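Bumping with the actual sequence this time:
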Amino acid sequence: MPELPEVETVRRGLEPVMTGARIVSVEQRRPDLRFPFPQNFPARLAGRRVEAVGRRAKYLMVDLEGDDVLVMHLGMSGSFRIGGDLPGLFHHDRSKDPTHDHVTFKLSNGAEITYNDPRRFGFMLLEPRAGLAAHKFFRDIGVEPLGNALDGALLARLFAGKAAPLKAALLDQRLIAGLGNIYVCESLHRAGLSPRRAAGTLARKDGSPTPRANLLAGIIREVLNEAVAAGGSSLRDHRQADGSLGYFQHTFRVYDREGEPCPREGCGGLVARVVQSGRSTFYCGACQR
């Protein structure tokens, strides 16, 4: 499933094309994806101006004229195409099977944006902005990890008293929004912290952050920003909005590198894989404590 950097990369690809344009028409080729499309979906979008293209956690948020928001989720394999596929770094041919092209937005600037989703696990909603904060998909989402809101003090406050493994706490979307398996593994390795460490150890008894909490917060932001700049990580189905592949996966230190030497200089350990809460965790037991 695309993680936050991949969704942010797609947002940045769609933003300059969609913002300020009107949706001339929408071609909807099936009644549902993961969920049914909103009733009268094409008619409710036609003629409306796109005010902004944003993101909340792993959701794309298209603000429309009239205070409605088009909420879109990529699911496991969803992607957007602007016009046709454009070549880019690490480009591969992608499926052009029309049975996987489920929605096409035709814009007043001449652009056509097509949503393709072979597994059909993505979805689209049309909701009033005033009610989004209370919507079941958004009411329990935690803080955004990009930007200065995520700092050591916040991690200490969120994790104080928690005996859960640090990796599990970082993946809890009720605490921090949008962090996924890949980037948590990478961040913990850079910070030298074990994914099995109790999350509560990042807070002192008085609730203040430990040096490890301050370090980890900065590294999470660093890793996510590097991944966004690199276009995300192209594992399985992820594509950027121009059809090209992201390339952050070429700089992975531990993710999916079981048995390889730890890249930390002077460590000498090997990358191991363990399963936590049904998901693979990659880390070095020699230098991550």
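The tokens above came from a reply further down the thread. The chain has two domains: 4-134, 152-284.
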